[in-house]
Design brief:
Elements lengths: L2 E9 L3 E3 L18 H5 L4 E5 H10 L9 E5 L11 E3 L4 H11 L3 E6 L1 H9 L5 E7 L7 E2 L10 E8 L5 E7 L5
Amino acid sequence: MGKVTLYIAQSADGYIAREDGSIDWLRDSADEDYGYEKFINTVDTVFLGRKTYDHIFELTEEFPYRMKDIYVVSNTREGHDDYATYLQPEQILPLVNMLKNEQNKTIWVVGGANLIHYFISAELIDEFQIFIQPTLIGKGIPLFKKNDLEKELQLTETKAYQDGMLAITYQKKEQKH
């Protein structure tokens, strides 16, 4: 069986971006990749929200995930472009279940906040890899939106980096029957 992972950085006060979507506060260290290279090599499929997808092209000239299967969730776009296939939100659940359960795919939920909220609310995330940067940005887009889901997670790993970044990994806690 495949798995769905949320691998993401947040500020110490819980934000993944500024209110305008900017991530200029996020470290881009040449000395440390925080396990990204190892992680991305395990990923088959990437899910992105449309704003996050568009933002990638503002940050870099070369699309970084071109060797992966890319799905962009959008209410306004359909079909595909050179890099991605567009999905409507109602297509997420059946596609994720098929990719994970029938094709044994490893799926990365990149963001943004609305997509992450959907995956959390639908209980699709198996593993949370959260990198907490020791920076307070005061306000912005929170990693976790309010929802009605209460779910206990199991801590599987912590790692503190020399520069103060803290990585925590949680998995869904197996329910006792």
